[in-house]
Design goal:
Blueprint: H1 23-37, H2 44-64, H3 66-79, H4 82-108, H5 116-139, H6 149-168, H7 175-191, H8 197-288, H9 298-328, E1 336-339, H10 341-359, E2 362-367, E3 374-377, H11 378-395, E4 401-408, E5 414-420, H12 430-433, H13 441-445, H14 454-464, E6 468-474, E7 478-485
Parallel strand pairs: 2-4
Antiparallel strand pairs: 1-3, 4-5, 5-7, 6-7
Helix pairs in contact: 2-4, 3-4, 4-5, 5-7, 6-8, 7-8, 8-9, 9-14, 10-11, 11-14
C-alpha cells in the first residue's frame, strides 16, 4: 500500500501559465503540517499505516502464542502444580484473546476512515489486559522449590516475554509499558517483602528490562516511520515523473500537430502564392520591357519595375521558408555526387559580381590549388556559398573588401570562408542571427531587405553534410563565416594500381 500523495494532473490539458512551485518547500510544509496535526508527531497519512503494521504483527503473534503459553504452563506445572499452571494459562489465553479481538475488529474496517487516537487507546488496553497474565506469573511463588531454581525460571521467561512484546508492538508507542505495567507493580511489591538479595536483583533486572526494551521499541518505530516516509517520497517522485512524462508527451503531441499544420499550410500557400506570383513576375517583365508596345509614361514603367522587384523578393522569401521547413522536417533530400568546391565558389562569385562592382567592393580570392573533390549535394553547396556571399555584399559598405577562401582544414577536411569588412555583429546578437527569422540590430537598421532565414538555412545544410558552421564577428571589425566539411567527405585521389606480374 502506498501512502504517497495522489498526483493531480489532466492528461488532456497542459497547464502552461501555472507558476512552478518549489518542490522541496512544498514537501517541507506538508511534513510540518502533518506533524502538527498528528497526536504522535507523525504525519496523519502514516498513522493508519503504522496501526495496520501493528495489527498485522499482532495477528501473527497471537496466532502462535498458545504454543509458548502451553510450554510455559508445563514448566510452571512441574514447579508448582497443575492448578496454578492452569489458572495462569487461562488468564494468559483470555488476555491475548482480547488483544486478538481488537486486532480483528480493526482489520475488518478495511479502507474505511478510522480515528487513529481511539484505536491506539484500544490497542494499549488490549496489551494491558494481555499483560495481566505475566503479572500473575510474576506473583506466583514456589515454597518447596530448591534455592533460585524457580526464580531463574521466572527471570528467563519474563525477559523473553518483554523482548518478544517489544519486537511485536514496536510500531505502537507505549505498547511495552502498557503490557508490563501490572508486571512492574507486582515485582516492585515483591521486592519490598523482605526477599533474599539475589531474588531482589533478579526482579530489579526484569523491571529495568521494561524501560530498556521500551526504548528499543521506540527506536524500531522511528525506523519504520522513516522507511515509510522514504517509500512515500519515492512514490511521490515516481508520480511526479509520470506526471512530467504525460505533460511532455502531450506537449510533444501538440508540437507535432502544430508542425504538421505548419507544413500543410506552407505546402498549400506555396502553391497558392507561386501561381499568381509567376503571373505577376511574367506580366510585369513583359510590361517593363515594352514587348507589346510602349507604355508612354516613365512613372508607370518605374512602378512596374518595383512590382517585379517586390514579387521577386516575395518569391525568394517563400522559397527560403519552404527550404527551411523541408530541412527541419527531415524531407530535404541530398542528391550527393562528387563536386569541386573551388569551381562552385567561382560560379557563385559571378552571381554577385555585378552587385560588388556597383558598390565598389573589392573581391579577394584565395583558393587552395589542386583540391580533391568533395562528396556533397551541389545544389546545397551552391546555396550555402550564395547565401553567405549575399550577406557579405549586403552588409559591406561601399569601398569595402570581401575575402573568399577555399582550402584544407587541419583535420583533412575542406572549408569555405567568407570575410567582409562590414559593421560586424555584437557578440550577444550572434545566437539571434543564427535563429529562424532572427535579425541583428545592424540588419534592422539597414536599408537592405532580408528575411532572417539565410544563415539558419546555411547552418542546417552544413549540418546535413556532417559539417560545422562557424560565425565569427566583432563590432566594427567585420564578420567571417566558415562552412567546414569533414575529412570523411573528401574524395582522396588513389594512386594508379600497377600490375606486379
Amino acid at each position: 500500500m502506498s501512502v504517497a500523495a495522489p498526483p493531480s494532473y489532466d492528461k488532456n490539458i497542459v497547464e502552461r501559465r501555472r507558476v512552478p512551485r518549489n518542490a522541496d518547500l512544498t514537501r517541507t510544509l506538508r511534513l510540518a503540517r502533518g506533524r502538527l496535526t498528528s497526536s504522535h508527531g507523525v504525519e496523519p497519512r502514516f498513522d493508519r499505516e503504522i496501526l495496520l503494521q501493528h495489527a498485522q504483527a499482532l495477528k501473527s503473534f497471537v496466532v502462535v502464542m498458545p504454543l509458548p503459553i502451553l510450554l510455559i504452563g508445563f514448566g510452571l506445572m512441574s514447579f508448582i502444580g497443575l492448578n496454578v499452571a492452569a489458572v495462569w494459562a487461562a488468564i494468559a489465553v483470555v488476555g491475548y484473546f482480547v488483544l486478538y479481538l481488537i486486532t480483528h475488529q480493526f482489520r475488518a474496517l478495511g479502507d474505511r476512515p478510522v480515528d487513529v487516537a481511539v484505536w491506539s487507546r484500544r490497542f494499549l488496553f488490549g496489551h494491558l489486559v494481555a499483560g495481566t497474565g505475566w503479572a500473575y506469573f510474576a506473583a506466583v511463588d514456589c515454597q518447596n522449590c530448591g534455592p533460585l531454581r524457580f526464580e531463574i525460571f521466572q527471570l528467563v521467561v519474563l525477559l523473553i516475554a518483554v523482548a518478544l512484546t517489544a519486537m511485536v508492538s514496536s510500531t505502537l508507542r507505549g505498547g511495552v509499558i502498557a503490557a508490563f505495567v501490572p508486571l512492574m507493580a507486582v515485582l516492585a511489591f515483591r521486592m519490598s517483602d523482605g526477599a533474599e538479595p539475589i531474588s531482589i536483583v533478579m526482579r530489579a533486572v526484569v523491571i529495568g528490562a521494561v524501560p530498556f526494551f521500551t526504548v528499543v521499541a521506540e527506536h524500531l518505530r522511528r525506523i519504520s516511520v522513516e522507511r515509510m516516509r522514504h517509500q512515500a517520497e519515492k512514490d511521490e517522485l515516481i508520480a511526479e515523473l509520470d506526471t512530467a512524462r504525460i505533460i511532455s508527451d502531450e506537449a510533444r503531441r501538440r508540437a507535432e500537430e502544430a508542425n504538421l499544420a505548419k507544413s500543410r499550410f506552407l505546402a498549400t500557400m506555396s502553391h497558392e502564392l507561386r501561381t499568381p506570383l509567376n503571373a505577376i513576375l511574367g506580366f510585369s517583365e513583359v510590361i517593363a520591357k515594352e514587348i507589346l508596345g510602349p507604355i508612354g509614361n516613365s512613372t508607370y514603367k518605374d512602378y512596374v519595375e518595383d512590382i517585379n522587384a517586390s514579387g521577386q523578393h516575395l518569391l525568394d522569401l517563400i522559397n527560403e521558408i519552404l527550404d527551411l521547413s523541408r530541412v527541419e522536417a527531415g524531407r530535404y533530400a541530398l542528391d550527393e555526387e562528387a563536386v569541386d568546391l573551388s569551381r562552385i565558389a567561382r560560379d557563385c562569385l559571378a552571381y554577385v559580381q555585378l552587385k560588388t562592382e556597383a558598390k565598389g567592393i573589392a573581391l579577394q580570392i584565395q583558393f587552395e590549388p589542386n583540391l580533391p573533390q568533395l562528396w556533397a549535394d551541389e545544389r546545397s553547396i551552391r546555396q550555402i556559398i550564395l547565401n553567405l556571399l549575399s550577406n557579405a555584399v549586403k552588409f559591406t559598405p561601399r569601398g569595402g573588401t570581401i575575402t573568399i577562401r577555399v582550402g584544407w582544414t587541419a583535420g583533412g577536411g575542406q572549408y569555405v570562408s567568407i570575410r567582409d569588412t562590414g559593421p560586424g555583429i555584437p557578440e550577444e546578437e550572434i545566437p539571434i542571427v543564427l535563429s529562424s527569422f532572427g535579425q541583428g540590430s545592424i540588419a534592422i537598421k539597414s536599408a537592405e531587405q532580408g528575411t532572417g532565414l539565410g544563415l539558419p538555412i546555411v547552418q542546417a545544410l552544413v549540418h546535413m553534410h556532417d559539417g560545422e558552421f562557424v560565425l565569427k564577428s566583432r563590432l566594427r571589425e567585420g564578420t567571417e563565416t566558415i562552412a567546414i566539411f569533414p575529412h570523411a567527405r573528401v574524395l582522396e585521389v588513389m594512386p594508379a594500381f600497377q600490375d606486379m606480374s
